[in-house]
Backbone:
């Protein structure tokens, strides 16, 4: 589409120019990309190592007295807790992100996630101590503390995703929001590779089936996340606030001076004015979550448990699949600037319906290559839909409550697709034929097809126009495309 920006308005020599005010912002686009990508990588790395541990060791460490199938279900139940915490995080952090800024809010999400994840690494088990302390474990307090830490992880991720995508979307040059939004969307691929890789190294180093792995080997990835968090803080603190929010904050100040009416809470305002967009966006992205968490945490459990494959084999395949779906994520993000977000997402959801029905028959052949193919295709479908989503959801909501709206819709989808789907899948595998897991995934994909059809294409939307004119303004700003 043709941009109404002049060439002088475009980001030049490593700096960003605010499209409405023309004021320079010295944060380079490369730094913005790094800040958004490193943040989501760390957040999702912390999130995913929990999922990997839930599949591999938590049934033994935190639920040792349960039947193996029951222990797996209980382990995935603690995994699901975070998804119910995510909408809470999106509301709380969305409020601050829409009120005090994207950057400051993202620093807090990183801190909370780091504390929770490292805390899990030092947590005693039900019957086992930790590094010479709490011999004999701490009993029922072990799973209780695990649930608390898991809630904090979900709470932090609930505020992370929307802020990271807004950081790139609101800095993006004209016609390149999909390309810029690619960077936070690559975080899951980087994170899954790192999570699988650290568990792979721990398994190889201390032995995949040894007591050492169950006692302390699984803790290494959790404690090691502290190094990533230090890097993430350094990069995020070096990024300035987005120009869109800076201008919006100035507009809010002018409105406060000229009007005695109190400013509405972002959550209440977005629910009142754009509730349809929240529901449609949540339905459209539900399959995105189900594909990813079935393809990662659940298939890790299914491969080691039902198919009796070794941990190192499953983790190695996970690393390979992460590389492929990372490439797919990048390509779909870039392509969405040309053909649109809706077109790609709807096409992927349509393909996901038949794929879900053949997924478990393919897995149940027991072939390692079939397992690798199943994991890779499932995650590639996720990547192809996840790439454009990083630009789509911020584009669907107005600037004054964009952080809240984008985060809330995304994390509501996480409850159905990311929390309930793996939990139900574990129950299905324990009691029924695995084909019914595929039927469930196909039904979720049909829901996403229907909802994605209702979405309006957003790739040409102006991110600065909030459909609000200050009471003191004498004229309406000229809209431009971005």
Residues:
């Amino acid at each position: 589409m043709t941009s109404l920006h002049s060439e002088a308005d475009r980001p030049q020599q490593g700096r960003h120019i605010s499209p409405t005010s023309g004021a320079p912002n010295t944060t380079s686009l490369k730094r913005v990309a790094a800040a958004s990508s490193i943040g989501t990588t760390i957040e999702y790395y912390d999130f995913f190592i929990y999922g990997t541990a839930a599949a591999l060791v938590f049934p033994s460490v935190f639920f040792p007295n349960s039947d193996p199938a029951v222990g797996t279900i209980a382990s995935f139940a603690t995994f699901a807790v975070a998804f119910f915490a995510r909408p809470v995080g999106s509301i709380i952090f969305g409020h601050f992100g829409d009120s005090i800024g994207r950057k400051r809010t993202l620093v807090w999400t990183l801190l909370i996630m780091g504390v929770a994840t490292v805390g899990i690494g030092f947590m005693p088990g039900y019957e086992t101590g930790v590094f010479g302390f709490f011999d004999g474990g701490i009993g029922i307090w072990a799973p209780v503390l695990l649930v608390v830490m898991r809630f904090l992880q979900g709470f932090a991720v609930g505020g992370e995703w929307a802020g990271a995508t807004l950081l790139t979307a609101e800095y993006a040059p004209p016609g390149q929001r999909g390309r810029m939004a690619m960077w936070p969307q690559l975080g899951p691929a980087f994170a899954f590779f790192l999570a699988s890789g650290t568990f792979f190294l721990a398994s190889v180093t201390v032995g995949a089936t040894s007591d050492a792995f169950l006692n302390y080997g699984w803790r290494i990835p959790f404690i090691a996340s502290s190094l990533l968090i230090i890097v993430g803080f350094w990069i995020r603190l070096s990024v300035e606030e987005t120009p869109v929010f800076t201008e919006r904050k100035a507009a809010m100040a002018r409105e406060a001076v000229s009007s005695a009416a109190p400013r509405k809470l972002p959550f209440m305002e977005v629910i009142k004015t754009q509730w349809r967009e929240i529901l449609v966006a949540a339905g459209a992205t539900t399959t995105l979550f189900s594909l990813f968490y079935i393809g990662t945490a659940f298939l890790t459990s299914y491969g080691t448990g039902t198919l009796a494959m070794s941990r190192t084999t499953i983790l190695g395949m996970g690393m390979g699949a992460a590389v492929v779906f990372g490439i797919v994520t990048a390509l779909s993000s870039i392509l969405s600037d040309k053909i649109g977000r809706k077109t790609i997402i709807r096409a992927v959801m349509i393909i996901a319906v038949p794929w879900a029905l053949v997924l478990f028959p393919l897995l149940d052949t027991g072939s390692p290559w079939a397992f690798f193919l199943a994991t890779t295709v499932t995650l590639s479908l996720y990547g192809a839909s996840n790439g454009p989503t990083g630009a789509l959801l911020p584009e669907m909501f107005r600037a004054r409550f964009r952080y809240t709206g984008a985060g809330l819709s995304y994390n509501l989808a996480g409850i159905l697709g990311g929390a309930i789907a793996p939990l139900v899948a574990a129950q299905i595998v324990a009691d029924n034929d695995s084909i019914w897991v595929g039927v469930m995934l196909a039904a979720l994909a049909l829901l996403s097809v229907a909802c994605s059809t209702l979405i309006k294409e957003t790739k040409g939307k102006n991110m600065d126009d909030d459909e609000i004119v200050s009471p003191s303004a004498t004229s309406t700003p000229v809209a431009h495309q971005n």
